[in-house]
Design brief:
- With 324 residues, the protein is α/β, with parallel strands linked by helices.
- The chain has two domains: 170 residues, Peroxisomal Thiolase, Chain A, domain 1; 146 residues, Peroxisomal Thiolase, Chain A, domain 1.
- It contains ten helices and 13 strands.
- The longest helix is centred in the last third of the chain and has 23 residues.
- It is globular and about 60 Å long.
- GO terms for molecular function: 3-oxoacyl-[acyl-carrier-protein] synthase activity; beta-ketoacyl-acyl-carrier-protein synthase III activity.
- This is Beta-ketoacyl-[acyl-carrier-protein] synthase III.
- It catalyses: malonyl-[ACP] + acetyl-CoA + H(+) = 3-oxobutanoyl-[ACP] + CO2 + CoA.
Length: 324
Amino acid sequence: MAQIYSRIMATGSALPERVLTNADLEKFVDTSDEWIHSRTGIRQRHVVVEGETTGDLATLAAQRALDAAGVKAADLDLIILGTTTPDIIFPSTACLVQHRLGANGCAAFDVNAACSGFVYALGIADKFIRSGQSKKVLVIGAETLTRMVDWTERETCVLFGDGAGAVVLEASDEPGIYATCLHADGGHKELLYNPVGVSVGFKDEPNHGVRIRMSGREVFKVAVKTLDSLVEETLNAAGMDASQLDWLIPHQANLRIIEATAKRLNMPMEQVIVTVDKHANTSSGSVPLALDFAVRSGKVKRGQNLLLEAFGGGFTWASALLRY
Ligand code: ACO
């Protein structure tokens, strides 16, 4: 029997209209554009307004991807949504988006793998397609991380933004996705986490509620080291070497982490998609947003080889090597 691959038909993305620049932040946080830009590469981020949700951004990104693919929502047989900021506890945001798109009946679920959520979702979708279970799958990464940012905490609040990206995958005789690698190590929980939730309770400290805790310098070190071995593993799994890659589409957390991975792959920055300056860290939204920007700007073309990678809370880390 011929091998089945999953292939990206089209991409889409969505950002909140409201933009918060580093200069805007300087007005109410003890920080500076110089500090933020030199440490992270970030110049601005998009931020949701009151009432705007992860599901709103996800629905818009998904509709744009479906339109670009020429696929009707009713023809989907699976929706997987990577998010760590769902609209409500349940139903899953994937179910909320499914109904708004009009895809009722197909399987739909969320994946919580923090910043690796989209790449995890892509890896799972690929397995569904390769097994013959699904033919057309919508994969989304969507977040409103600024909903759990404490705007008085300068170590974290300058780093994050909101946004969503999506791809439509279809079963194909030709690649497609060559390899995906998914990993986690729960032993590093304390370095990057949000300690509140349903089972432990929502109020841990007065006036703080739901907020991100992060040991930035430690996360940085582990991320660089882990991504180094991840890209090697992914190339091996696909039977390729770095010279066959056309583009690196990394998680957009910090330009210095991105540059370290590019260096490891011996890729010039001209072959790396960078959107962290405009979007900041949108967690699960980051990789599909960068992919959609690269496709719609004409940088990424059909037939090119792309390496997608992400690292986030858990820790989780994941990659996909594919022919677009
Ligand atoms: N503005 C001005 N000064 C600041 C700010 C700010 N926003 N935040 C911290 N500082 C100060 C600190 O207080 C410290 O001051 P001190 O030297 O007087 O004590 C100084 O700047 C240096 O702080 P460091 O934490 O050492 O700065 P560093 O160069 O490590 O950069 C950063 C911090 C940007 C958080 C970096 O460590 C990083 O990006 N880490 C990765 C974290 C990350 O990306 N997390 C997201 C999720 S995981 C992922 O996506 C990879």
